[in-house]
TrEMBL record:
<dbReference type="Pfam" id="PF04727">
    <property type="entry name" value="ELMO_CED12"/>
</dbReference>
<dbReference type="GO" id="GO:0048870">
    <property type="term" value="P:cell motility"/>
</dbReference>
<dbReference type="InterPro" id="IPR024574">
    <property type="entry name" value="ELMO_ARM"/>
</dbReference>
<dbReference type="Pfam" id="PF11841">
    <property type="entry name" value="ELMO_ARM"/>
</dbReference>
<dbReference type="InterPro" id="IPR011993">
    <property type="entry name" value="PH-like_dom_sf"/>
</dbReference>
<dbReference type="GO" id="GO:0007015">
    <property type="term" value="P:actin filament organization"/>
</dbReference>
<protein>
    <submittedName>
        <fullName>Engulfment and cell motility 3</fullName>
    </submittedName>
</protein>
<dbReference type="Pfam" id="PF16457">
    <property type="entry name" value="PH_12"/>
</dbReference>
<dbReference type="InterPro" id="IPR006816">
    <property type="entry name" value="ELMO_dom"/>
</dbReference>
<dbReference type="InterPro" id="IPR050868">
    <property type="entry name" value="ELMO_domain-containing"/>
</dbReference>
<dbReference type="InterPro" id="IPR001849">
    <property type="entry name" value="PH_domain"/>
</dbReference>
<comment type="function">
    <text>Involved in cytoskeletal rearrangements required for phagocytosis of apoptotic cells and cell motility. Acts in association with DOCK1 and CRK. Was initially proposed to be required in complex with DOCK1 to activate Rac Rho small GTPases. May enhance the guanine nucleotide exchange factor (GEF) activity of DOCK1.</text>
</comment>
<feature type="domain" description="ELMO">
    <location>
        <begin position="158"/>
        <end position="331"/>
    </location>
</feature>
C-alpha cells in the first residue's frame, strides 16, 4: 500500500511538470500521441486512483480539447459523460471543479448536434462552480439560437404543417372537411377566420407573422409545444378569447411571438458566454425542455395579466411590459423548480406590480431626484429645531433616575428636571412611588450657565471603577455626567432606558450649544423628513420632477406694460 501511494505521488509530480511544460508552449498539443492521451484518460476513468492524479489528468484534457478538433474527438470518445457525472457526485470539491471544467470544455468545442447530452448538475460549490453552471446553462440555451434566427419559409412543407397543426388543435374546423365539400375560396375564408381567432395579425398568410427573426421559428416551436403538451390549456386559451368582444381578446399568436422574444432577451439566448458571470437558474437543471416549459407557464401568465388589466389591442405593448417585469422579478428570486416559479409568478399579479412600482418610484424620488435632495437640505434646519424643542420640553418634564451605590445596589431614587425658562436644572431625592414631583420640592440646583461639558459612557467618573459583567455593560451604555462650576463638579446619571439616555444627552447638548449626536436624533429626523416630503410632493403625483430648474426668461425690452398709479390719483 505504501509503495502504491509512493507511485501515485511520483505520477502526480510528473503530470504537474508536464502541465507546466505545456503551459510555456514548448510543445504543441497536437504532437501528443493517441496512446499518451488514452493513458491520461485511463487515469480519469479508473475507480481506484488517487484524487490528485485524477485532477491533474482532467486539467490536461481540459487544455487539450480546445486546441484541436482531432484531440476533441478523441477525448469525447474516451471520456464518457457518465464518468464525468460520477466525478461530480464525489465529496472532493476540487475533483468536482475539474470534472465540470472538462465537461464545459467539451461542450464549448462541440457542435450544436453534439451538445444534446445535458448535465443536471449537483449543488454549486463556490464561485468557480457557479461559473461552470452558468456556462453549462448558457451553452444549452444557445441550442435554440439557430431556430431563433431562422425566418419561416412559406414554401417549406414541414413548417406549413406545423402552422396548420395549431389551427387544427384549436378548432374542429369545417375547412378540414373532405375535398369537394367547400369551394377553394370558402375553405380559405374559413382558414383565415380561424387564424384570426388564433391571434395572427396577417390571418390570410400567417407565415408573414413569423418572418421576423428573432424570434423566428422558435416562436412557432413554442406554440406547437404548448398545443401538444398542454392541449387543455391551449384550447382554453383560444376558445376563451374567441368568445370575447373583439377589442378585449388576447391574441395568442402575437403574444407568443413577442413572449418568445422577451424570454430570449431575459435568458440571453444567442449571446456569447461571459468569462466571469455566475448567474444561473437552479430550476434550469431540473427540466429536459426548460425553455419550452417556461414558455408554457408564461403564455398562460400573459392571458391572466391581460384579464387583470382589462386590456384591449391598443394595450398590447403595455401588457407585455408588465409580463416581462413579472418574469424578471420572479427569476431574481432564483426559484429551484418550475413549479415554484409558476406559483410565485402567478402570485405577482398586476396590482402587486403597481404597488412595487409605486414604492420604487417614491424611493427613487426621495433619494435620487436632485430637486428633492435640495428640498431635504432646506427642510433639515427647521426640523432639527423642532427636535431641539422637543428635547428641551422632555427635560422640562423631568425623569426619575436611580442612584447607583459603590456596590452597584440600586437603592435610592432621585429626580431631575429643567426649569421652564431653560436656565436652571433642579434635582433632588424622592420617595418610591413619586413620579413627577413639583419643581419647588427639588432643593438642588445647577445653573445652565455653569455647565461646562457632557460626559458619556466610560468618560463618566461613576463608571471608571473596574468591574465586569452584564450589569456594568448596561450601566456604561446608559451613563452620562454633567461637569459644572469652576471646581468642575460632576452630576452623574444612569438613564432608565436607552430612549431616555438619547433624549437627555441631546437636550443637554442643546443647552451647551452643541450638536445632537444620539442615534435617536437621526431616526426622528428621517421620519419627519419623510412625512414632510410626502406632504410637499402630494400634488406632484405621477408628474416627473426635472433635475434642473427651467431657465429664467430674458427681461422685457421695456416696462411700459406696468400700470402707472400716478394717473389714477389725478
Amino acid at each position: 500500500l505504501c509503495l502504491q501511494v509512493y507511485c501515485w505521488e511520483i505520477l502526480a509530480h510528473t503530470l504537474k511538470a508536464f502541465m507546466e511544460l505545456m503551459e510555456h508552449d514548448f510543445v504543441s498539443w497536437e504532437t501528443l500521441s493517441a496512446a499518451f492521451i488514452k493513458k491520461i484518460v485511463s487515469y480519469v476513468n479508473m475507480n481506484a486512483m488517487d484524487a490528485s492524479v485524477q485532477q491533474l489528468s482532467m486539467s490536461i484534457l481540459e487544455n487539450m480539447v480546445p486546441s484541436s478538433r482531432v484531440l476533441f474527438e478523441l477525448v469525447k470518445k474516451e471520456v464518457t459523460v457518465d464518468r464525468l457525472l460520477t466525478h461530480l457526485q464525489v465529496t472532493n470539491a476540487q475533483l468536482q471543479l475539474k470534472a465540470m471544467a472538462l465537461l464545459i470544455a467539451l461542450l464549448l468545442a462541440a457542435t450544436d448536434a453534439e451538445r444534446q447530452n445535458i448535465i443536471h448538475s449537483s449543488e454549486p460549490l463556490g464561485d468557480e462552480m457557479a461559473h461552470y453552471l452558468y456556462v453549462l446553462q448558457s451553452v444549452s440555451l444557445n441550442l435554440h439560437e439557430r431556430r431563433m434566427r431562422m425566418s419561416m419559409d412559406p414554401y417549406s412543407q414541414e413548417q406549413r404543417e406545423l402552422l396548420q397543426s395549431l389551427r387544427q388543435s384549436a378548432f374542429e374546423s369545417e375547412s378540414d372537411a373532405p375535398a369537394g365539400t367547400f369551394s377553394t375560396e370558402r375553405r380559405r375564408s374559413l382558414c383565415a377566420k380561424e387564424f384570426r381567432k388564433l391571434g395572427f395579425m396577417n390571418n390570410s398568410n400567417p407565415a408573414e407573422d413569423l418572418r421576423r427573426a428573432p424570434p423566428g421559428l422558435l416562436a412557432l416551436d413554442n406554440m406547437v409545444y404548448f398545443s401538444r403538451h398542454t392541449p387543455s390549456a391551449y384550447s382554453r386559451f383560444i376558445l376563451e378569447n374567441s368568445s370575447r368582444e373583439d377589442k378585449h381578446e388576447c391574441p395568442f399568436a402575437r403574444s407568443s411571438i413577442q413572449l418568445t422574444l422577451i424570454l430570449c432577451e431575459i435568458l440571453h439566448v444567442g449571446e456569447p458566454c461571459s468569462e466571469t458571470a455566475q448567474a444561473f437558474y437552479p430550476m434550469f437543471f431540473g427540466q429536459d425542455h426548460f425553455f419550452e416549459e417556461l414558455f408554457c407557464i408564461c403564455i398562460q401568465l400573459v392571458n391572466k395579466t391581460w384579464k387583470e388589466m382589462r386590456a384591449t389591442q391598443e394595450d398590447f405593448d403595455k401588457v407585455l411590459q408588465v409580463v416581462r417585469e413579472q418574469i424578471t422579478r420572479t427569476l431574481s428570486l432564483k426559484p429551484t423548480s418550475l413549479e415554484l416559479f409558476k406559483t410565485r409568478v402567478n402570485a405577482l399579479n398586476y396590482s402587486e406590480i403597481l404597488k412595487l412600482r409605486q414604492t420604487e418610484r417614491l424611493h427613487q424620488e426621495e433619494t435620487l431626484a436632485v430637486p428633492v435632495l435640495e428640498l431635504r437640505e432646506r427642510l433639515k434646519p427647521e426640523l432639527l429645531e423642532l427636535i431641539r424643542q422637543q428635547r428641551l420640553l422632555r427635560l422640562c418634564e423631568g425623569t426619575l433616575f436611580r442612584k447607583i451605590s459603590s456596590r452597584r445596589r440600586q437603592d435610592k431614587l432621585w429626580y431631575c428636571r429643567l426649569s421652564p425658562n431653560h436656565k436652571v436644572l433642579h434635582y433632588g431625592d424622592v420617595e418610591e412611588g413619586v413620579h413627577s414631583p413639583p419643581i419647588e420640592s427639588l432643593p438642588e440646583k445647577i445653573p445652565v450657565a455653569d455647565m461646562k461639558a457632557l460626559l458619556v459612557g466610560k468618560e463618566c467618573p461613576h463608571t471608571k471603577e473596574k468591574s465586569s459583567g452584564k450589569q456594568n455593560k448596561d450601566v456604561l451604555e446608559l451613563a452620562f455626567s454633567i461637569v459644572y462650576d469652576v471646581e468642575e463638579y460632576c452630576l452623574n446619571f444612569v438613564a432608565p432606558t436607552r430612549y431616555e439616555f438619547c433624549l437627555w444627552t441631546d437636550g443637554l447638548n442643546v443647552l451647551l450649544g452643541k450638536e445632537m449626536t444620539s442615534e435617536r436624533t437621526q431616526t426622528d429626523l428621517d421620519v419627519l423628513l419623510s412625512m414632510e416630503l410626502k406632504l410637499r410632493l402630494l400634488d406632484l403625483e405621477n408628474i416627473s420632477i426635472p433635475d434642473n430648474p427651467p431657465p429664467v426668461p430674458k427681461p422685457p425690452s421695456n416696462l411700459n406694460f406696468c400700470y402707472d398709479f400716478s394717473h389714477a390719483e389725478q
